[in-house]
Write a sequence for this structure.
């Protein structure tokens, strides 16, 4: 099985690219974030026409998460136990969806950005991550052999070499000690970063801002992850980051992260060459 996570930065705007990527990628399960659409606006046919079942959770033009699977999609869950909302009064956001895909409980997660260190969204981000850790800890206590994949855009660069220049992030979110501690606590709870051993840094990123020619200048961040429970980690056989998908017109600002299980590789498929090239 091959599982991928991808912040698509608008499923509607990038429907054609998503479909083309699925055609060449041989992905069994794709978790998406920032679909930026309500449920009735989501381009479901991109997936169903290719033999995938799909579950989407979107409440507005912001956020939005989805899972597409060609190996089964059962027991769909909207949000995880204890997931906090944002605002006063608190309102739920479309940031988490889970489903069982051929025995693996896959969660597509879009962790809050945090915005600024003194912003209420930053404390919301830390509460959100704490609730995710508590939910994961409880699930593993209930069933240590559960195969769980927490995948998505975590909006955290856990290590210094996960950003192009630490000095450029002085006083900014994504790299602060509390955010990194929250990520580490999730890993310590039993959810391992299974792509990193196959995609070692420095300079290995999953996100490049649209501004300032960040991609060609290699000014990126590693903020998209596949975190696996112990039973699932034992099945991991490869991983890769499809950096090529960040290139060209209409690309998302994130690249897909791929993990292979049970002998399947994680290497991205090559893009088909244009005629005459």
């Amino acid at each position: 099985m091959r599982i991928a996570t991808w912040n698509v930065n608008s499923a509607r705007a990038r429907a054609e690219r998503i479909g083309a990527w699925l055609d060449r990628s041989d992905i069994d399960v794709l978790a998406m974030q920032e679909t930026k659409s309500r449920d009735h606006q989501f381009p479901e046919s991109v997936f169903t026409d290719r033999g995938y079942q799909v579950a989407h959770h979107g409440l507005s033009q912001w956020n939005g998460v989805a899972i597409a699977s060609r190996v089964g999609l059962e027991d769909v869950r909207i949000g995880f136990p204890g997931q906090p909302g944002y605002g006063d009064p608190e309102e739920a956001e479309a940031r988490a969806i889970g489903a069982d895909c051929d025995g693996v409980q896959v969660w597509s997660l879009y962790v809050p950005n945090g915005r600024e260190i003194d912003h209420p969204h930053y404390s919301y981000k830390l509460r959100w991550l704490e609730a995710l850790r508590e939910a994961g800890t409880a699930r593993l206590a209930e069933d240590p052999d559960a195969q769980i994949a927490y995948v998505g855009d975590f909006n955290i660069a856990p290590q210094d070499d996960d950003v192009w220049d630490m000095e450029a992030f002085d006083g900014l979110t994504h790299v602060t000690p509390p955010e990194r501690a929250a990520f580490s606590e999730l890993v310590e709870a039993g959810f391992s970063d299974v792509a990193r051993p196959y995609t070692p840094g420095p300079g290995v990123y999953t996100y490049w801002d649209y501004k300032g020619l960040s991609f060609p200048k290699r000014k990126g961040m590693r903020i998209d992850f596949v975190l696996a429970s112990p039973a699932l980690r034992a099945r991991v056989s490869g991983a890769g980051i499809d950096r090529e998908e960040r290139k060209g017109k209409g690309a998302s600002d994130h690249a897909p992260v791929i993990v292979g299980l049970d002998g399947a590789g994680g290497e991205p498929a090559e893009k088909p060459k244009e005629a005459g090239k």
